[in-house]
Write a structure and sequence with these properties.
mainly beta; Jelly Rolls; Immunoglobulin-like; 3 domains; 8-stranded antiparallel sheet; 1 helix; 33 strands; about 0% helix; about 50% strand; elongated; disordered N terminus
Length: about 425
């Protein structure tokens, strides 16, 4: 008898609560964790420019950045010392957000540049100068200057958020709104490449200064998202989480777009009371490639079940996903399934379903009708059940297994099936 599908329930959650897909930058996301290397990976999704941007001139990567390593200045000029994003600036009239972590800055008179494109109407960001001692400036690109004081020496996280629907530029310092500068509608396009850690041929980052977590979004982050992400390493972008039911098994599937320092996922289930861990699926550590995961929760009794994922980093920090809920429905009839595998050696699985709570007897007989094994003789709840038969002590041949189930309403169900032991 073909196994019946009693219920299929699918719940799909997009942009989930570990780190929403919306929080991941779309243009650039440089973490500068490649100590001693000459390239740094762009973790943005989908990302612009090159997947691995060359770190040029005297710029290096090493400890200690916001969450790991960082980009270290050498005092060279932007003509030689810069991260070559490989991107020809084409922001256009769209909204955008740029954020970066800065430390060991030198307040004073000299200008030190952090990013920009001279071909995009001199769109650039720098420290000191007209902005004031220890202040940071965003200017060019046809915009009204944005000067943010109190940045040096750091550590400081700065966000510049351009909202094309207003239009204005909001600046945030360590996740807190600092100021707003009204703008005419901007249209920023350049000849490239957009540089990070330098600009044109001007002075780049000062010796020993540091940059980390350079993030460039193709949209305007709101205040809530800035506050939630300015001091977050964005460990995992969970893009989907679904649950489906087949008879009495629940299949969970989820996908990530990016992972940072991901140790893995603890699968937690609740029917009544508190959540309990029912399994663990290892993560892929750090990757910018989409990854797919699956976990099957087997042999559940009828009822409503709620699942969540507990994503943990290697340092022990963790976040919970949103919830998915499924219902395992009791079968509508009694049945005895064909054993699998069949033929078998030396063990096989036997499935059966009960429409009601029942007294169950399951016995095995040889071809002469002699009982050779009693597998079950006890009470079972309504639902689907599985038992394993180990025939290691029996000879090859044809055997029969017989199920007798007596429901609590007095209904009796009997069925017999044949199986073959081959040694």
């Amino acid at each position: 008898m073909v196994k019946k599908l009693y219920a299929i329930l699918l719940f799909l959650v997009l942009g989930l609560g570990i780190i929403s897909a919306q929080s991941v930058p779309e243009v650039f996301w440089y973490k500068f964790n490649e100590t001693g290397g000459t390239q740094t990976q762009n973790f943005a999704v989908p990302g612009r420019g090159t997947a691995f941007a060359p770190v040029m001139g005297g710029l290096t990567m090493g400890p200690s950045g916001q969450f790991g390593d960082g980009l270290i200045g050498a005092g060279g000029a932007g003509g030689t010392d810069y991260v070559n994003t490989g991107w020809v600036t084409d922001i256009g009239t769209s909204s955008w957000t740029i954020s970066l972590w800065l430390n060991n800055l030198v307040p004073g008179t000299p200008l030190y540049y952090f990013f920009g494109d001279p071909g995009a109407a001199s769109f650039r960001c720098f420290l000191n100068g007209v902005a004031g001692v220890g202040a940071i400036a965003l200017r060019g690109g046809g915009m009204t200057d944005v000067f943010v004081p109190g940045i040096a020496p750091g550590p400081t996280v700065v966000h510049f958020v351009y909202d094309a629907t207003i239009p204005d530029v909001k600046a945030y310092v360590n996740g807190v709104h600092a100021l707003t500068v009204g703008q005419a509608a901007l249209n920023i396009n350049g000849a490239g490449p957009f540089k990070v850690g330098g600009y044109s041929t001007s002075a780049g980052m000062s010796p020993g200064s540091m940059m980390d977590e350079f993030r460039f979004y193709s949209r305007a982050l709101d205040a809530v998202e800035v506050a939630a992400t300015w001091n977050s390493p964005l460990p995992v972008e969970l893009t989907s989480f679904s649950a489906s039911v087949f008879v009495n098994d629940v299949l969970l599937n989820w996908e990530t777009a990016t992972e940072i320092n991901n140790n893995g996922f603890s699968v937690e289930r609740k029917s009544v009371g508190e959540f309990e861990a029912v399994g663990f699926v290892p993560g892929f550590g750090t990757t910018s490639e989409p990854k797919s995961y699956a976990f099957t929760d087997l042999n559940l009794q009828p009822g409503i079940y709620t699942y969540r994922l507990k994503q943990s980093d290697f340092d022990g920090t963790f976040e919970y996903s949103d919830l998915v809920e499924v219902e395992v429905i009791a079968p509508a009839e009694y049945s005895l399934q064909q054993n699998y595998p069949n033929p078998f050696n030396p063990s096989t699985a036997i499935d059966f379903t009960l429409a009601l709570d029942s007294k169950v007897s399951l016995k095995v007989f040889n071809i002469l009708g002699q009982e050779v094994a009693q597998l079950l003789n006890s009470d079972f709840a309504a639902g689907s059940h599985k038992v394993t038969f180990d025939a290691a002590g029996l000879n090859s041949g044809i055997y029969f297994y017989k199920l007798v189930a007596t429901g609590i309403d007095g209904t009796e169900f009997t069925d017999v099936r044949k199986m073959t032991l081959t040694k």
